[in-house]
């Protein structure tokens, strides 16, 4: 078991380079199944979700080989459908993309129910609705927790139009995966707009798919008979970028966040500026520091291009750091249970009242160090921000959540002056990272 130990209160200065986007890497890795050929994927983040996704493909019989620190060669020519080990599938949410990819290529998918962060109910009814609209039969075996999707006779799905009842990233991508090799044209209406949907569509198009409209409400996929291999670089992680933007302001330092697409963080930039934080945009970077005075702000998280739900815990820490008694409202518009981290922040002196999906956050000026847990991925990184901004020492447990999504976080933070260590927990601490 590992723990992060932070001595906070130091402003951070310097430059942090953003890694490839976790939420684009996972669908693109599973989309290589559809290519049935050799693909070279570049700019992969070194995070456990990527390692698990690659382990799943390897277990299914794919050839997977790193040819550089962030570049991997994947050849899915000889994979076995239905061969994904349940224990690996349960380690990550994005393993549900195996359903669309296997169904599209083999006409049949057998996949265990996925894992991931506990954010309340996480149904996949819209994924299933999409597969069914393309002619598949979908059965969920509750006793083995397995989902089996089967294409109509002949083994090929048939394009049709699918209207999504809720805006969902996962279902939009999964239906796109299923549809690229279908017969005829599929139209996804009320599709989600997130940049990783566009990135997945761009990857598939570079393999010979015919997808248009990704990034809008309506995505059109003209089915093709076969895809081919490609070389493709994953876009930068907008949530990692946003996390470090908040870190700069929270520690009252100045950070240049490089290798990002500023447009992808526009909603974060807008809200930080409203709070009195300066965000200077470069071509592929932003530089962030506090202005003269911090202001209150109210935020509701929404699907892209709204303020991202995956930045909810991080912005909450910033709200806590406002002057005493300054009140902000943070409303969660995507997940039913995103505020589990509040109890942890309270251990550090935060003053937050949660009522359903709404939190009233009262500024306390400064937090103090405490022993806390990473209750999920973004909650965990919020504890890192809080710990670095707080006075005294913070110890964060259950950091495997953070390691699922933040590439090299301890080293990146040390490089900008953070007093942070990763230790293994035994009778006495052993430092394993310096
Ligand atoms: C993706 O989850 C991300 N995960 C999440 O990031 C992110 O919070 C979320 O999108 C929203 O941006 C991955 O990419 C692996 P959704 P996903 O389908 O695709 C409801 C992180 O920290 N819904 O867009 O599972 C659902 O309950 C993680 O990186 C249905 O009702 O989310 C939710 O309220 C956490 N039926 C809303 O839609 C469905 O069939 C959005 O979910 C599917 C979803």
What small molecules are bound in this structure? ligand EPZ
| Spatial strand order of the main sheet | 21-22-1-23-24
- Please give the share of residues in helix: 25-40%
Distance between the termini: 17 Å
Number of separate strands: 24
In DSSP terms (H or I, runs of 4 or more residues), the helix count works out at 14
Biggest sheet overview: 5 strands, mixed
Give the assembly state of these chains. single chain
Question: Can you describe what's shown?
Answer:
The protein has 434 residues and is an alpha+beta fold. 30% of the residues lie in helices and 24% in strands. The chain contains 14 helices and 24 strands. The strands form 6 sheets. The protein has a 5-stranded mixed beta sheet with strand order 21-22-1-23-24. It has a 4-stranded mixed beta sheet with strand order 2-14-16-15. It has a 4-stranded mixed beta sheet with strand order 4-5-3-13, covered by helices on one side. 52% of the residues are buried. The model is unreliable at 429-434 (pLDDT under 50).
């Amino acid at each position: 078991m590992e723990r992060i130990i932070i001595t906070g209160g130091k402003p951070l200065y310097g430059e942090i380079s953003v890694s490839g986007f976790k939420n684009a890497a996972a669908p693109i890795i599973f989309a290589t199944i559809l290519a049935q050929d050799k693909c070279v994927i570049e700019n992969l983040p070194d995070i456990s979700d990527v390692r698990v996704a690659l382990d799943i493909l390897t277990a299914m019989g794919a050839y997977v080989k790193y040819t550089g620190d962030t570049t991997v060669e994947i050849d899915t020519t000889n994979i076995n459908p239905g061969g994904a080990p349940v224990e690996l599938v349960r380690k990550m949410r994005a393993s549900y993309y195996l359903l669309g990819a296997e169904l599209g290529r083999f006409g049949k998918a057998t996949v265990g129910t996925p894992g991931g962060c506990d954010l309340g109910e996480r149904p996949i009814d819209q994924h299933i609705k999409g597969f069914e609209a393309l002619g598949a039969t979908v059965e969920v075996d509750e006793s083995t927790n397995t989902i089996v999707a089967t294409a109509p006779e002949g083994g090929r799905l048939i394009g049709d139009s699918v209207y999504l009842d809720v805006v969902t990233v996962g279902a939009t991508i999964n239906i796109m995966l299923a549809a690229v090799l279908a017969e005829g044209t599929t139209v996804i209406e009320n599709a989600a707009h997130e940049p990783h949907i566009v990135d997945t569509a761009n990857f598939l198009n570079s393999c010979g798919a015919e997808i248009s409209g990704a990034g809008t409400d309506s995505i059109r996929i003209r089915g093709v008979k076969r895809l081919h291999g490609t070389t493709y670089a994953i876009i930068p992680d907008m949530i990692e970028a946003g996390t470090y933007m908040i870190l700069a302001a929270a520690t009252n330092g100045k950070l240049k966040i490089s290798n990002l697409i500023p447009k992808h963080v526009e909603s974060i930039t807008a809200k930080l500026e409203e709070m009195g934080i300066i965000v200077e945009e470069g071509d592929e970077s932003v530089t962030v520091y506090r202005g003269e005075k911090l202001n209150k702000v109210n935020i509701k998280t929404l699907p892209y291009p709204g303020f991202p739900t995956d930045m909810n815990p991080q912005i909450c820490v910033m709200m806590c750091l406002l002057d005493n008694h300054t009140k902000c409202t943070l409303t969660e518009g995507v997940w039913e249970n995103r505020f589990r981290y509040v109890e942890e922040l309270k251990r550090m002196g935060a003053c937050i009242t949660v009522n359903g999906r709404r939190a009233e956050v009262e500024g306390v000026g400064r937090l103090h160090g405490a022993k806390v847990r990473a209750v999920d991925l973004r909650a965990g990184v919020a504890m890192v921000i809080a710990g670095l901004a707080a006075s005294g020492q913070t110890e964060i447990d259950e950091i495997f959540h953070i390691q699922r999504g933040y590439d090299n976080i301890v080293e990146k933070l040390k490089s900008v002056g953070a007093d942070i260590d990763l230790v293994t927990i035994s009778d006495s601490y052993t430092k394993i990272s310096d």
